[in-house]
Structure formats: structure tokens, C-alpha cells
Design a protein that fits this description.
- By secondary structure, this protein is α/β, with parallel strands linked by helices.
- It folds into three domains: 12-109, Immunoglobulins (Immunoglobulin-like, Sandwich); 127-528, TIM Barrel (Alpha-Beta Barrel), CATH 3.20.20.80; 536-615, Golgi alpha-mannosidase II (Immunoglobulin-like).
- Helix content is 25%, strand content 22%.
- The protein has an eight-stranded parallel beta sheet with strand order 16-15-14-13-10-9-18-17. Strands 19-20-21-26-23-24 form a six-stranded antiparallel beta sheet.
- Strand 19 and strand 20 form a beta hairpin.
- It is elongated.
- The chain binds calcium ion (CA).
- Residues 137, 139-140, 142-143, 162, 164 line the site of calcium ion.
Length: 616
Amino acid sequence: MKQKYLVITMLALALQIQAKTDLKKVEPMNWWVGMNNPNLQLMVYGENISLTQPTLNYQGVQVREIHKVENPNYLFIDLMIGAETQPGKFTIEFKEGKKKVAQYEFELKGRNTKPNIHNGFNASDVIYLLMPDRFSNGNPGNDSTINTLEKANRQNPNGRHGGDLQGVINHLDYITETGFTALWLNPFLENNQEKTTYHGYAISDFYKVDPRFGTNGQFVELVDLAHQKQLKIIMDMIFNHCGSGHWFIKDLPMSNWIHQHDSYFRSNFRAPVVSDPYASEYDKNQMLTGWFDTNMPDLDQRNPYLATYLIQNTIWWIEYAGLDGLRIDTQPYPYKEFIAEWAKAVMAQYPTLNIVGEAWIQQIPITAYFQGGAKNNDGYDSHMNSVTDFPMHGALNEAFNEREGWDEGMAKLYNILAQDFTYSNPQNLLVFADNHDLNRFYESVGKDLNKFKMGLSFLLTTRGIPQIYYGTEILMDGKENQGHGFIRKDFPGGWAGDTINAFTQTGLTAEQLDAYQYVKKLLNWRKNNETIHAGKLKHFLPDDGVYVTFRYTDNQAVMIVLNNSDTNSKSLKTERFKEVMDGFHSGKEVITGTVYETLDLIEVPAKSALIIELRK
Ligand code: CA
């Protein structure tokens, strides 16, 4: 009888606690001691949580201010974490009067001291970009989950195909053996919406890996394994917008958390207005406050709570996972002042990190405007070391298809490099032939393997940080105007039952195998070549379709020759290049191993590239 009474009492107590505990979220969920910035702002979400008074008691941690906002379901708590604070856990109690109605156990962890973290990325790296849904399905059990709305459908080009983090983990060796030194994953945080969620750019929880990709812990496992293999990890961050499935969109903390319009108002997608000295307020407003897509609410980073939330979210992932770099999506679309503040805060905490901004702009001066350290007339500095080199991308995709002319063909590549004085640091530009939003490079060059090799040889020897899109190494095709699904096809071998397995080069065509061996050889050579990583660049005006570039140091030189002529093999007289070649008497071609006993005359077949290491 006594026992029964006890059970009933405990049940009643449990129910009582449950009824009163309406705390749904505390973000960030935890933090670390010993960070540069002692301030931390917690966003607390729960029904009528603003009616409560939060308290905590932990040595070194002080509650500085508690903010109530428009929506009573939110509280923002400003903490100050003293420099001497020790790692540990404490309870934040939420009281109504004297009655405790909710509590949260908050952990202050010790700093991440794992080896080989926060390494940044630079021109010594080559980045592999892959889309997790389309690379490899390592766990068919998570392709669909009960709690996520869109279920797997591999027949739909724009559906979820089941690729995941386990698939990436399973094939890290493929990535490193091919010769890549850094890995950029398209976003993998939760995107819980009805459709088109596979690409990851409509985040519904900034602190959670999408369960169809895996778990937060699995991402850390991926990073740790990658670091053991000397592979750096770059995470994709999206702060211009979130997904309409985001939990805070369903119950906004404040009306100005996002840009709200009377009816759907789309961005004009005109990045140049951000730097344009003559831009109208109308156009700037549409660029910055218009929505990227109907299911992507546009965040208003002028809201200081939101700005802090996003900055802390970035720092949380860097510290939690030990990231090496970041890629910021749609750099010109959020307020540029916020982007600068964000990048500055991240780099202050992690000076060895690197950030690349996606500045999708065709004009060089406007691209340069968005790179950190730019001497802009309006004083703007994004504090972001790297930006994407879309002008170079454009030239690479056109040059090999063109007949030689004053501004066509090889001159197109030459002219891009000739404008490098515009950039604060050309060596930090991200160079690429394609990515997840663009025509596959093999498609751009009309599925011509010779042009493909010329493009890759230029990309991997010019200044900047090369990025290669998954599958480009095996000539995957697809045009952007067919639909995004067609430039984001499944990597062959990533799914059980695939008849072709590109991870083991089983079933590839002769052309695919040729391309793969070419890329692999070039990457593995480049990996240890300091002349390419950090050497100077000198190029000579293209002459009759032949474009010659050198990368060189005081003692080393690499000569890159592109012959863009369709039919004519060229006997290249090297007299013109003696300011670089003086003192070098022989050379070896990197791909074929061909040895040049003398360098006076070099035969260059039509539509080909030679990469020759010069020898004294
Ligand atoms: Ca899966």
C-alpha cells in the first residue's frame, strides 16, 4: 500500500514537472571556456518563457542582462564568462516568483584540443566539393526518417537520393588518394520541408545535422578521420536566409527577424548594386530584403539578436567540430556590414582559419570589392580572405571553345590574370571550372577531353586555390538549364547495386579513366610542389594560339604551355621566355614524363597542354 502511494506521488510529481517545463530550445546548447570573447548570448525558447526569471550559480559566470522581446516565448540571456572560469556544468533555473518552472543544464566545455584542427586552406590546397545527398549512400537506413517531411526518391532528379555523411566517411581515402587536401561539403544541416531539400540550402535547424545525412556526432567523426588523413574540412554557411521549415520561422522572436513584405518580393539577384556608388535605394532594398526563393525567408541581420545568434552559431561549429574553413553562401545578399562583423569575429577567434565568400559576380572590380583587405573607396572591408573567382570561371569555360582573337581564346585567360592588380590578394581567390550551380565543365567544353585537360592543367597551375566539383574528375556531365538535378547527379559507385564504381575505377569508359588518371597525377604532383603553391607567376602574350605561363621561385620553374589551335602542332621557340628560362637547360613534362634534353624548341600538339618542370 505504501509502495503504491509512493508510485502515485512520483507520477503526480512527474506530471507536475512536465506541465511546467515548457522549455523547447536553448541555443547555443553549450559553450566553451577560454574563448576570446567572454560574452555569450543564449536564446531561450519556450511557451511564455519571458514570464520567468532565469538564474544560475557558477563560479566565473555572470548574468549581465536578460532581454524580453516582442514574442513572450523567447528570452535572451547575456552571460559573461570570466577568463578563469573552469569547464563544468550548471543548471539555469527559470522561476515564476519562487516557483521553479523550468531548468536547463548548460555545459561549459574545455576548448577543443584535438590535433590538426583550424588549419585554414590556401593555394597549397586543392578543394574537393561534394554534395552529400549525391555522393554516396553509406546508410540506406536513414534515407527517410519519421520526423523529416521529404522522403527519399532516387527517381526524382530534384528529390533526395539517400547520400549521407557515412558515405563520405567511407570514401575519404578515395578523396585523399586522388590528391585532394581539403573537402568542402555542400550544406548538411537539417532542411525539414516538403520538397527540394537535398541541396541543403534551406536550413531548418542551425545546430543540427539533417538526420537523413547523419548526426552531429557523425560529422565530428568525419572531421576527425579527415584530419588523420591530412584532409581539411570546409563547412558551408548560409546566413542570408533559412528554410521556411525553420522552427523559429513558425514563431518569430521579433517581427524584424526576417524581411517581411506585403506580398512575395523576390531579390533582384543583382550583386553589383551592393558596391555601386550610384545604386538606387530601391534596387539595394530589393537586393538585400527580397527573398532568394519562396521557401527561403530572408533574414534581417540588422537585428542585433539575430546577428549574434548567427556569429555564435558559426563559432559553435568551428569549435565543436574542429573545422578548418568556411564557405559563406551568397556573400553579397546579407547586409555587408554584418558579413564583415561576422568574418571579423570568426577570424579574431580563429586567426589560422580561412573563409571564402561566394561572390557570384562576373566583373573583376566588383569581385575584388568583396575580398577582405580591398582598398575600397567607401572604406568597406569584408574581412574575408577569399572570394570565388567567377570571372576566371567564365574565361575557363569559354576560352577553349573559341578561335584565337584579340580578346578571344587564350587572350581571355591572359586578360583575367592581367587584372589581378585589382585584388587585395589574388593568391587567395578560389578558382574553379564548375560547381554545384554551374554547367559541368566537361559539358562546357563540348565533351572534348583535350579541352578538358587544358582547362584542368591551367586551373591547377595558375594562382589561387583550386576547387574541383565531385565527378568532374570522371567527366560527369550535365547542363544547368536542364535543372539543378542534372548537374548534381549521383556519383557512380555510391549506391549499392551501381554497375559502375568510380571509387575503384570499375566500369569507367576509356575516356573517363584517362581523365581520372590525368587529374590524379596532376593533383598528387601539385600537392608537394611549392613553386605552384607559392611561386611567382609570369605569363607571355598568347601568340598564334599558344599561351605560356611560368610559376617560379629563385631556383625552380614550371612552364605551362597551352596550344589552343584546333589543328596545328606548334614548334615553340623559347627564346622569347629567356628572362625566366635563363639557367634552365632541360625539363620534364609532369603528366607524360617526357624529358626535354634541350629547351630551345618545344613541340606542342594541337589542343594540348604541357606542364614542364625546368631543370638547371
Ligand atoms: Ca542514406
